[in-house]
Amino acid sequence: MTLEQRxxxxxxxxxxxxxxxxYPDYVDGVLSTTAQRRQRASxxxxxxxxxxxxxxxxxxxxxxxxxxxxxxxxxxxxLLAASALYIGSRQTxxxxxxxxxxxxxxxxxxxxxIYTVDPKTNRSTPITTGRDLDTSPTWSRxxxxxxxxxxxxxxxxxxxxxxxxRSAAPVxxxxxxxxxxxxxxxxxxxxxxxxxxELRETWIANTTGKPDPRRIDVGMSMVSPTFRPPEGSEIIxxxxxxxxxxxxxxxxxxxxxxxxTILPAEPGNFRDWIRVSPDGSHIAYSAAxxxxxxxxxxxxxxxxxxxxxxxxxxxxxxxxxxxxxxxNDSQRLAVARGYADRNxxxxxxxxxxxxxxTGIETERGLTGCCDTAVEWAPDDTVILVSPNDLDGVRKPQxxxxxxxxxxxxxxxxxxxxxxxxxxxx
Amino acid sequence: MDQRWxxxxxxxxxxxxxxxxxxxxxxxxxxxARLILRDPELARDAVQDGLIxxxxxxxxxxxxxxxxxxxxxxxxxxxxxxxxxxxxxPIEVELSPIHHPAVADASAGVxxxxxxxxxxxxxxxxGRAIVxxxxxxxxxxxxxxxxxxxxxGTVKSRLHHALGEMRVAIATDxxxxxxxxIAGGQLA
Lengths: 425, 188
What we know:
The structure holds two protein chains of two kinds. Chain A has four helices and 29 strands. By secondary structure, chain A is mainly beta. The longest helix of chain A has 21 residues, at 68-88. The radius of gyration of chain A is 26 Å and the shape is globular. By secondary structure, chain B is mainly alpha-helical. Chain B has eight helices and no strands. Chain B is elongated and about 55 Å long. The termini of chain B are far apart. At the A-B interface, helix 1, helix 2 and helix 3 of A face helix 2, helix 3, helix 4, helix 5 and helix 6 of B.
């Protein structure tokens, strides 16, 4: 038995030891109080028909006048809550926010609406419909909600909606160039970026109650922000400087605003596409040196504390690697690999995170330009790819087998950023 | 006497049956409340609130087998209500156990207890409630989440954080070397 197992075994006894005190002699006083009080009649209050969890919920501190109209309103509210609980109970167990999970639905945007599709049946369900232009859906880590952008002229508004399409609600003001929507690990907030290329701002908004969007101000432009698992108490990002000035990697504490340097900014050293491993221990990123004539990106891995920075290996004839994406078990990375100076003749590759091999490639030419977005299925058995052609135009999503490198067009024919729902195993 | 029978009698208004249930549970409730609130007087108030509400609402408890968990939830929620009401006034009162159990290595046990207590003190009341509900009262994580009305993921991450702090404190104190993570998140 390891030290950790022994500790968890002993923890109840340690807690008992800490809490030990004299026998609570006040119990007789409590019982004399309860003896003088009447119980609620079992048929006169609504908790009779509600789950125990609801009846044990804390009550508001302020006492409301108990008048008939308010009773009626309270009853309606409780019935609505019971309905919501019933609907919610259809997914009784939620997946862990990180690590492997079961594959759920794939979300995608088409013609300005958001859909989900069941990959097993290829049956699609509209989540948002109507005249609004909705795009870029992304799942919460527990798979119960989606966030998406609603385009309003030159600006976008971030929305959150339940997985079944109910309760769509805006969580931001209209903002220009909004992108990189992501839920915090516990789903209580969403993060997004907005602003100009020169000054990328990172915002956070609550997903329940009042959204209260607020800017994370670190005194510099934030690029590629991502919550660090498992708690999400830190956001890892690159500063938004040019290649010449160099980009470093930093972490900001969401609560305190304190910033720590993971890799300092150095002139000519450009870092981008920051991705934190699901276990929170390592950061993968693309690094490039200044060059006008060729793509020089190489994928690196560094410890979350800034130690052990190293480049992932490439075959001799390869010229660059870019766009890393971690598997859910934190063991492998999917990357785009180029065999020409520019974004042509590219293959997709799965590389072991320990750098022990150059990995397994797909055939070349599947994607050709710009940022190729990929997302591992929650169970890590397949990777969903959003490829581009050489002009940057999105092509239909691909399903990529990480073991063999084989690919096929996803039968649902969607284009756009991949988003796969996590469900309980 | 069979607890189920006592619960059924108490549901029908038998106060003696309720008194028996309360006396059987009060030590554990008191300790759980002391762990969460870090203040014996507040713990006493919270347990009283929980028991009074339990008596009042007992006829609404559908499953007598669920009595223990239900009573734990009432008490923990009473603790958190009290903690929130007192939030403007930080509560940091040292608990002074009267008795320490005899252990083979008493000094090591006391040291370990102190380390855990320090980490507990650094958590807020909600964080302590998660640890107490899961490790002291034995509720599964899903029930902890339902009791506190927060996502299971939040429970897990906060528990992970608290346990990590405790392990680090104990490992540091015992000079056990920390294993370095290698790529992929495995431990060497």
